[in-house]
Amino acid sequence: MRRVLGSVRARATLAASVVVAVALAAAGAAVLLSLWTNLSEQAGTEAERAAQKVATDIASGQAYGGLSLDSDDQPVQVVDGAGRLVAVTEDLERISGTGVDRVTPQAPGAVTGDDDDDGDDGGSDDDPHEAGELGEASFSDGSATIDGDTADYRFAAVPVEVEGKGTVTVHAGAPLTAEQEAVSTALTVMLIGFPLLLAVVALVTWLVTRRALRPVEGIRGEMAAITASEDLTRRVPVPDTHDEVARLARTTNETLAALEQSVERQRRFVADASHELRSPIASLRTQLEVGAAHPELLDVGGAVEDTVRLQRLAADLLLLARLDAGERPADARFDLVALVRDETGQRTGDRIAVSVAADSVDRLEVSGSRGQLARVLGNLLDNAQRHTRSSVSVSVRRAGEWALLEVADDGEGVPAAERERVFERFVRLDEARARDDGGAGLGLAIARDVAVRHGGSLTVREAVAGGALFELRLPVA
User: Fold this and answer.
1) Does 175 share its domain with 48?
2) For residues 309 and 322, what is the distance between their CA atoms, to the nearest angstrom?
3) What is the pLDDT of residues 279-290, one digit of tens each?
4) Coil, strand or helix: which one is 134?
5) Residue 366 domain-assigned?
6) What is the CATH number of the domain that holds 271?
7) Which of 125, 154, 187, 413 gives a 20 to 30 Å CA spacing to 324?
8) 472 pLDDT more than 90
9) Are 26 and 115 in contact, with CB atoms under 8 Å apart?
10) C-alpha–C-alpha distance, residues 257 and 236, integer Å
């Protein structure tokens, strides 16, 4: 049961059924209330008409004995100003709701509905020349029993002012039987029809939801198959629609494509790293084995060089791993000009001297990791030293809200078609020289990753001297 209710289809069907049920209940109650109100008003109008007819006769001077009160289904009471019942419908056995429960006339000479039209009540009340005025009717609900039949009634009370008699009130009722039957019939129809309508709504919602969610089930099944097979080249089916499910399928495929690229990149990275580590490790092992067998032949300098190469490569791999894991740089402020001067001042043993041009700015603050940006500058300088002919220059300047650090050389430069590829990992445009110099093709890749994570960029173009010019762009703090 929990599994069934846990499905989107079941919840949607239940929600739709509940909403429709509440709406039907509210609409049904409103219809029944409106129907009862209208029919009650009609019964009230009928009762008022009957009461006004009797009141008009009284107002015109008709004697109580001459009133026509012999209706079969309309109880009538005539009450004088003293609250005495002076006339009543024939065969009225019980009445409630009019305020006068008596069914027998109290006034001397008063009559029931079967008295003769020329009856006399024995007083001046019978003078035919006296006239009165009808008042506004008021309404109430009650019941009455006439000749053994009991029913509910809508009563209208019409007062009439009669000269010499005071206020005489005529109570007349109209039966509510037809109204009650109509409301009962409508209620029966609703009790039968509403459940059927709810069943139809639930069935339609179930079928429509199943049809709408069928592509989702296809996506889920394909994702389960991809997970089981670990084949990231597969893609989920995209329905031929323009709804949320189609967008979900397209987004899922984009995610799978990005994941495939990430996994492939990671596999390439591991393979390239293993390949790069194999050479210095093999060289170091060979030298150590020769040194163990013939100590006089041990090349200590070469062993140290290979060890340093391994150390640098391990440091590069570790930094790339941290960058790939999303490590955020420190949020420290420092002077980029001072950083450049410090780093270039330590490179006194370089093959080519590095010139610094930062005369236009004395101080240019940026934020981030000083160590990582120093690593970027070092990698750019190492790259320039390997490829330059006679000069390497570093310049720092400000361009609006950006700090620009440029490293230029006068070497052969980077071909236009290769200016993005040089930032890929383990890429060497000059394979033989890169190996001889100990480069693994990671320096520029690390430099660009660090620049991007500092909110900047790293690009390469042709320098004025014809070589390569690498431009590091960072936001000014």
Assistant:
1) yes
2) 20
3) 778 878 888 888
4) strand
5) yes
6) 1.10.287.130
7) 413
8) yes
9) no
10) 11
